[in-house]
Amino acid sequence: MKAVQLLKYNKRYPKMKLEDITLPDLGLNDVLVEITAAGVNPVDNMIARGDLKFLLPYKLPQTMGNEFVGVIKKIGANVTEFSVGDRVFARMPIKKIGSFAQQAVINKHALAKVPDYLTDEEAAAVPLDALTAVQALNKLHGKPGDTLFISAGTGGFGQMAIPLAVHRGYKVIVSGNPAHEQQVKDLGATTFIDYKTEKVSDVVSQVDYIIDGLGGKALKDEMRLLKPGGTIVSLKGVPDKKYAERVGLAHGQTIVFSILGARIDHLAKQKHQHYYFIFVNSCGSELAQAAKVLTEMKIHPAIGDIYSLDEYGEALYRIAQGHTDGKVIIKM
Domain residue spans in the chain? Predict the structure, then answer.
């Protein structure tokens, strides 16, 4: 079986190769999936460069890729939720990634059935962004009519987060690229802010919740827009002690993240606000919830360039360039 293997971390030129590998044995709760398409994401380049080694210390060689769509070819003895022939998709479990491959063995709890209306390319674009949106929204505990500001919300994440937030009754405000203003409004956003010509603080104040897609200095600026008692969930900010404890990191990692996140935690406490950093986990049941909403609203993810498996290098380079028109896909 062919798979893209990361052989050596490097900031500029990670060493990767398309190789023949042997899959692990099928466990009682596992399924064997023939992968038909895989989504390509910035996190794939971050892993290859070694940016996430402290958080995710993969033992090399490591098969690359974090999300996929495919067809079940074999099921473990304890698998009753799925059958051979089912079309499924998933965010690969963090500790067992590997979607840039012709096949994968994956635990049943990571899987969900694909809505019939989605093509394979569209389905491959869903899991990572949809699960990130669901897991971010699950931290908010809001009620219909509450205001939610999503910064940098005009990309793939926004395509998932906006309709899912609207479905929960939030009034959604989005900042981002003006080229996508009509798209985010069609998805249900009530207000759009052009980051090139408008100052967010002139439009947004005292919002109930924020999903931060920028991190860095923008995170602190966003906290000024949040009302006391509000919650900000960051996708690009600083992992803190709460995150480390929540995901069960080792003692040393917890200490480091406690130090790194101390300033932002202190700032949130001063303002009587709640701060959460999240790194998306695999979860088939949450993906199924998202898929149900996307089906009801007939959301079609935007698809960008499509590459073959042996063009994985070009696909990763395209992502590194940024500003793609849609999700970059590797089609098997």
Answer: 2-125+300-331, 140-277
- Cα-based distances in Å from 119 to 33, 49, 216, 301: 17, 31, 36, 10
CA distance 312 to 156: 20
User: Model-level pTM?
Assistant: 0.95
Contact assessment for residue 264 and residue 218, using Cβ atoms and an 8 Å cutoff = no
The pLDDT tens digits for 196-239 are 899 999 999 999 999 999 999 999 999 999 999 999 999 999 99
Phi, psi (rounded to 5 degrees) for 260: -60, -40
Considering the domain 2-125+300-331 in this protein, what is its CATH number?
Answer: 3.90.180.10
Cis bond upstream, residue 61 (ω within 30): yes
For residue 281, the tally of other CB atoms under 10 A from its CB is: 14
Cβ-based neighbour number of residue 151 at 10 Å: 28
Question: Taking a C-beta distance cutoff of 8 angstroms, is the pair 110, 282 a contact?
Answer: yes
Say if domain 140-277 classifies as CATH 3.40.50.300: no
Q: Coil, strand, or helix at residue 183? A: helix
253-288: pLDDT as tens digits: 999 999 999 999 999 999 999 999 999 999 999 999
Q: At what angle do helices 262-270 and 216-223 cross, to 10 degrees?
A: 10
Residues in the chain: 332
